[in-house]
Amino acid sequence: MRWRFIFLLFFFGGLYALLIFKIYNLQLKNGDYYSERAEAQQRAGGELESIRGNIYFTDKNNNLIPAVLNKEYPEIYAVPKEIQGNNNNKEYAERLSPIINISVEELDKKFRKPNDLYELLVQKAEPEQVNRIKELNLKGIYIKNQLLRFYPAGNLASHVLGFIGPMADKDELAGRYGIELYFNDLLAGKSGQAKGDTLIKPEDGKNLVLTIDRSIQAQAEETLNNLIKKYSAIGGTVIVQEPATGKILAMGSFPNFDPNNYSASEIGDFLNPAVQSVYEPGSVFKLFTMAAGIDSGKITPETTYYDSGLVTFNGRTIQNWDLKAYGTRTMTEVIENSINTGAVFAERKTGHDIFYNYLIKFKLNEFTGIDLPGEVKGSIENLKNGRDINFATASFGQGVSVTPIELINTMSAIANGGVLMKPYILADGSPKTIQRIISVETSKAVAKMMVSAVKKNVIADIPNYSVAGKTGTAFVPDFEKGGYTDDVINTYIGFAPALINQGEARPDSSGRPASAPKFIILIKIDKPAGAPLAGMTVVPAFRELAQFILNYYNIAPDEL
User: 514: helix, coil or strand?
Assistant: First the structure.
């Protein structure tokens, strides 16, 4: 009897000791490993991932139109810790490489990471890849469904939206370019955590609604794309803004990319030229020259000068774009015929200091503050040396630079009774006044000059509507040899209805016109073949897009 008691005592004592050893092995010696493995499994299962917020376009009736959604895609991933246990690194790499299009060397490097419990191999796997991986049935290689970004409109507004991609130092995904980057923290929410036996639940990201109107965006991009193809240009940009509020209704550039398959595009295509590219705007800038002169009281639209066809400063001669001499002309006729020497006269009549200070007032050397990443700003630095030739060329938009968003936003102030607004792209934002830059009277005078130019040159004219607009054809600088190349950039900027002939643009209590134009459009194309004038290229495109927007909003004619 005694020996049975002793046997049972040792037997259960051994079992207890074995259990204590197992607990020690699990919780102390290998606790970190199993804790990391549990967290990796939960992360792989999606339990710790927050759901990224959606992004929406809108329309004229404030309907929400999906721009970015979450969609389930199959993901292929590896657990190198399990693969290393079989000493199959190289064999695995050789078998997987032709299926997932990753080199054997790179896969082998991934599989050799010590104590690694998660390596993403394919983010959006094709059905054929999934089937072949399943057939291999390799331990440590797994497939799961994961919510990833889906862009239902494809390339539409791709520069505005951006995309998400893997972070350089982690396997996590984060916003890259556009709204996805700028509002990444807001969209992403907060991932959950597994700490021991405690699970901290994730916080889902917020949805965002943009001011981008899906219908106007689609028409604007189609118009621009057709224009670029027709003239074999290397690219272009279109922006539509609401002058009274600063709201961006459309913004697009070419070449663009498909966020669903961004790896198929060049890295340079991801940059947004509307906010990240500067250029010399050409004769569009004459409007700022006239605004400065009129607002300062130095000139009026009726001020005259005599044009001999050329002027010379600091040993350099400036001629008109058509090499003509126009004789006696008013400032309105300078805008109608886009006379370079007339702009030079207006700037000199205004005075260098006053002209320069107005450019500062126009914020042409500052960021607009739009909620998009990587914004750059234009430059008027070469005017600081005070040379007459630099001020002369600046008067008609050469030797100074702007971004498209700077140009349209400042021009919106002319359409908005002289009040500069901050451009915004989130629908829950509110109009923000920056400052008054010119008087209501000056804004009306410049707008009237622009309408006169449209009436005279006909191409942008829309029957029964007052349309204000101005062309710009600027030569592209030669950054290697100095001077300018034979290539040009064509720009047209205009707004409607201008509402200046019937006097509706009376200021309200805020100092802005009671009936500001509903929209302003900027269209720009880069290096069209044969260096045609803007009147041949961007002006007809502006008219097409303006007509669409007038019909879309059902805007009543103002010139019956």
Answer: coil
**Secondary structure class of 311 (helix, strand, coil):** strand
Q: Which residues are 209's β-sheet partners?
A: 56
For 243, counting Cβ atoms within 10 Å of its Cβ (0-12 exposed, 13-18 middle, 19+ buried), the class is: buried
DSSP assigned state of 536: G
Helix (H/G/I), strand (E/B), else coil: 40: helix
Percentages helix, strand, coil for the chain, rounded to the nearest 5?
40, 25, 35
Please give the helix or strand (H or E) that residue 303 lies within, else none: none
Whether residue 272 is predicted with pLDDT greater than 90 in this model: the reply is yes
Contact residues for 409 (Cβ-Cβ < 8 A; gap 6+): 241, 246, 368, 420, 421, 423
CB atoms inside a 10 Å sphere around CB 206? 14
* Partner residues linked to 379 by β-bridges: 401
Cα Rg of the chain (Å, integer): 32
Buried b / exposed e over 245-277, threshold 16 CB at 10 Å, is bbbbbbbbbbbbbbbbebeebeeebbbbbbbbb
Looking at residues 21-34, what average pLDDT do you find?
A: 52
531: left (phi over 0), alpha (psi -120 to 50) or beta: left
pTM (predicted TM-score): 0.86
Phi, psi values for residue 529, rounded to 5°? -60, 135
